[in-house]
Amino acid sequence: MANSSRILLGFLTAYHPSRWHRRQILREQCLKNSPLPYKFVFGDEPFPGDRERCGIPDDEILYAPGSDQKKFLHLKDIALFKYALDNGFDYVMRCCDDTWVFPDRIVKAGLEPFDYGGHFPCKFKLGGTFPLPFRYLNYAHGGCGVWLSRKAMQMIL
User: Fold this and answer.
1) CA separation (Å) from 157 to 34, 37, 113?
2) Three-state SS at 58
3) pLDDT, tens digit, 9 for 90 and up, residues 52-101
């Protein structure tokens, strides 16, 4: 990684109690002593008391407009990419809160030549018995995270 490259880790999460332990595992295991800065992206419409119970310090949180419902997930992406661009980051590794991330490996991975990368789903048959079609096939998503350059973030925005 070039010394001047700045990488931000962004974790899309929710206030729902089922997500609390996922954030704690990330903070206490994967992100402990991280060489990369990170943000947890929440919706800005929590239920009363949720902000106090989320278990994340305010300086690690980024709020996106809308609720934490899945139909507003794209607003979390937009908030993350705007934050990254406005704060001089060259790359974002966009993940969900259940993605195990090893920041030291991301630093050494040599991903900087790539504008966009991740898992691109395809249509397949489970056990050859029934089809499992994916609704959207033209964008990266899923468990491994999505790598984006400034150029890719600007194009998406």
Assistant:
1) 28, 22, 21
2) helix
3) 667 888 899 999 998 888 888 889 999 999 999 999 999 999 998 988 89
With a cut of 60, say whether residue 3 has pLDDT above it.
no
Report the amino acid identity of residue 126: L
Distance CA 36, CA 111 (A): 14
Which DSSP string do the residues of 72-114 spell out, in sequence order? GHHHHHHHHHHHHHHTT-SEEEEEETT----HHHHHHS--TT-
- C-alpha 119/C-alpha 55 separation (Å) is 29
Task: Name, in order, each residue with C-beta under 8 angstroms of 29's C-beta and a sequence gap of 6 or more.
Answer: none
88, β-bridge pairs: none
Average pLDDT over residues 99-126: 81
20 in Cβ contact with 46 (< 8 Å): no
Q: Is the pLDDT of residue 126 over 70?
A: no
Rounded CA-CA distance 76/66 in Å is: 9
